[in-house]
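Students often ask why we bother encoding 3D structure as a string. The short answer is that it lets us treat folding as translation between two languages. Here is a chain of 276 residues written in the first language.
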Amino acid sequence: MELIRSHHPDAFRQLDTAALRRDFLVAGLFVPGQVQARYWEVDRSIIGAAVPTETPLELAAGKELAAQYFCERREIGVVNLGGPGSIETDGTRHVLGKLDALYIGRGVRQVRFASDDIRHPAHFYFVSYPAHTAYPTKRVPFTSAQVLELGTPETANRRRLCKLLVPGLVESCQLVMGVTLLEVGSIWNTMPCHTHERRSEVYLYFDVPPKSVVFHYFGQPQETRHLIVRDREAALSPNWSIHCGSGTTAYGFVWCMGGENQEFTDMDAVAMENLQ
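And here it is in the second language, the structure alphabet:
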């Protein structure tokens, strides 16, 4: 498991493009037949993916966790971005189609990923945070998401924000997770932007066409930078950073937060005239 170090805002200002991509862009997660993971020091986040093919893939703790099993002291949120598949947790099978989600609670000893059809494998994207107590594992189909219709065609940010692993649907310690889908003709997400000092956030972009890119903006409001992000790559947003993006076409992204609270509206808005 690769370790990603955290940065102070003052150090962030000095980074060039290569360093920004090294420390804030997560690529190469979706590898057929493998589980890939990255350990980010901020909020002790783990970002990963599993693409099972001929045989199921098991999620192991690894030496980085100093635990007997991955969920010994952790919770996990999973969204399937590929073909139909299933996740087995301590012998219970949970079937997930595209954009279905699964919350896996602390104390689950065995997590195993499988695809229904190896020609169209499941692409399980997961984020994990430390958990102080155990809540039940629960599947949330995409059809049960809490949906917010946001934006306007005039500002090119018409989108559906779909809450999946959130209070009211799932009990969790700190993990909050969902999917945002942009309408055709819209390119902007999370604009006007905001920060939330109480939580870090990860965006995983998907359904980005091969010849398209997303410009992901981050940093302090008066010291913004950008990353060029491609399909199934993630951008890390520290607690002090804004997070928003614009694409060369419509796209989707999985957002996940962990930190001090789960209040979705607990954010500090940044006025457009204050962005630099």
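Translate back mentally: The chain has a mean pLDDT of 94. Keep this in mind for the problem set.
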